[in-house]
Structure formats: C-alpha cells, structure tokens
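Protein modeling request. Please complete all fields; requests missing the sequence field cannot be processed.
Requester role: graduate student
Desired output: 3D structure, token encoding
Chains: 1
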Amino acid sequence: MSRAPVPQCPIRVGEPCTLCVPGATGPQDCGLVWLVQDDPELRAELARRRSAFAEDRRRERADGLS
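Delivered output (66 residues):
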C-alpha cells in the first residue's frame, strides 16, 4: 500500500509543510516561501542551511553503515 506524498517545507528544512501561512494550500502558494526566494540574502542563507542539513543526513547514513 502506498502513502500519499507529504510536501516538505522549503523554509523549515527537513520538516513537512504545515500550512502555517493563512490561505496557503502548500509550498507552491506560500507567501513566506515567495518572500525568502525573492530576497538574495535570505535565499543564500536558506541554501546554506539546506547544504548543512544534507551533510548531516549523509553523515548519519554513513555512521549507520559502519
């Protein structure tokens, strides 16, 4: 049995979308996502956080294989 995909929040890295912005139906029409993506400094910080999150996950998987 397959489960429905859960949209991930593009801002809170690693967490599901909780529809925290009134009127949003998901990340695709979230005003907060739009604001962050529209600001070069915020977009760069988000990219840094995503990279750090991905690195942590790679480390966790590698530790699990040892």
